[in-house]
Amino acid sequence: MTKEIVFFIVFCLFFQPSINSQTPCVNGMAGSYPCNDYDFMSRIPIEDLSGLSSSEFGASSSDIWGWTDSETDKEYALIAMRNSTAFVDISDAVNPIFLGRLNATSTGTDFKYWRDIKVYNNYAFIVADGVGAHGMQVFDLTRLRGVTTPQTFTVDVLYTEVESCHNIIINESEAVAYLVACNTYEGGPTFVDISDPLNPVGLGGYSDVGKSHDAQVVT
Q1: DSSP state, 208?
Q2: Of the candidates 56, 55, 48, which has an alpha carbon nearest to the alpha carbon of residue 16?
Q3: Number of C-alpha atoms within 13 angstroms, CB side, residue 137?
């Protein structure tokens, strides 16, 4: 799938369109959306992804990531919902399949807006901001193989040396995750060795400059 298609799928997940099926970009519009050589392919309502309605905590999303299964070549969207992480098979952009969600670890009901996801070695690493003792969830993405109906997934490993974090960055060449704006190291980056994804090991952190909102890691 091209970056252009992925981008437009992201756009349609975040906003509520008035169209529900494949709509070509004609004269600068794809249905109700302005476009420039982007066709509207499909839509899954955000309420379906989160399982929330506006009368509860509000169905919303903060971020999105992706994973391609090297064994099957299937492509998946990993969507950071207010209360969970949703998984969607987007191998067929016209007919995406909602596979289910991994709920937040914390038990509080005051779900915040921000959750972040990154992928390393077929595992998703998930943090959440402002939801209490959430920690870093580790989820084996190969468990999505063969799933055709929505499931409620469970976490494979929970890293509990942090509680709330705003963002996560992974240096894939070094197998190190950088968790930022956590409750540790004055909000500075926390370093975690993820070379063994099911056994993450804390490497310390950096607190000298205070809270970090985001980061780019360069070796």
Answers
A1: T
A2: 48
A3: 25
Beta carbons within 8 Å of 181's beta carbon, 6+ residues apart: 129, 165, 166, 167, 187, 211, 212, 213
Closest listed residue to residue 115, CA positions, set 80, 139, 88: 80
Dmax (CA) of the chain: 54
With the C-alpha atoms ordered 8, 12, 18, 23, is the resulting torsion angle positive or negative?
A: positive
Helix (H) / strand (E) containing 5: helix 3-14
**Residue 146 CB partners (closer than 8 Å, separation 6+):** none
Alpha-carbon distances of 7 from 49, 141, 154, rounded to whole Å: 18, 21, 28
Please give the Cα distance from 154 to 23 (Å, whole number): 36
- Quote the tokens at residue 120: 């390393």
Q: Which residues pair with 124 in a beta bridge?
A: 119, 139
Check: CB of residue 212 under 8 Å from CB of residue 178.
no
Per-residue model confidence (pLDDT) at position 161: 92
139 has which bridge partners?
124
Distance between CA 172 and CA 192 in Å, rounded? 12
- Residue 216, both tokens: 């780019």
User: What integer best gives the mean pLDDT of the chain?
Assistant: 84
Sheet holding 84-89, edge to edge: 61-68, 75-81, 84-89, 97-103, 151-153
Which pLDDT tens digit goes with each residue over 50-88? 776 555 556 667 789 999 999 999 999 999 987 889 999
